[in-house]
């Protein structure tokens, strides 16, 4: 089984999560870039796009068909999965049999609802979900969440 981690990160936290997963599972990483959300002006655009439910159009990932399993994740904006990750769920995850998700917030409050919303965008069942926030990224708690998530992703995919 070939697995790819696809992630978006505006300020670096989700990159830490994505890299920790990729390192543990020894798998490929693909970053989504969305320059319209850079900097302070990008914060306004990010907030507006999330309120309106807008999704940016993302470029194709050329070898996506070669991967059976995808792990997708990124930050929470205004209580919801960020616009690039909602777009990625729509564009990249159709017909994938095995999917893992992660969300990264500022603190713990919005993690459950954002993870639930992201999972609801998919056709397929989700094999594992990792919920992280900025304050925990260098703690043993984070290390064990990554380990638990990676163990779940290494098991057989969930069947519908
Ligand atoms: C426009 C905007 C809105 C945000 N809204 C939330 C929010 O509602 N809840 C939350 O927990 N974090 C919120 N955050 C904080 C980020 O989700 C959090 O810092 C995350 O760890 C950043 O991940 P990143 O560094 O990969 O971009 C928001 C950040 C931005 C830029």
Automatic annotation (TrEMBL):
InterPro entries: Flavoprotein-like_sf. It comes from Maritalea porphyrae. This is Flavodoxin. It comes from the Bacteria.
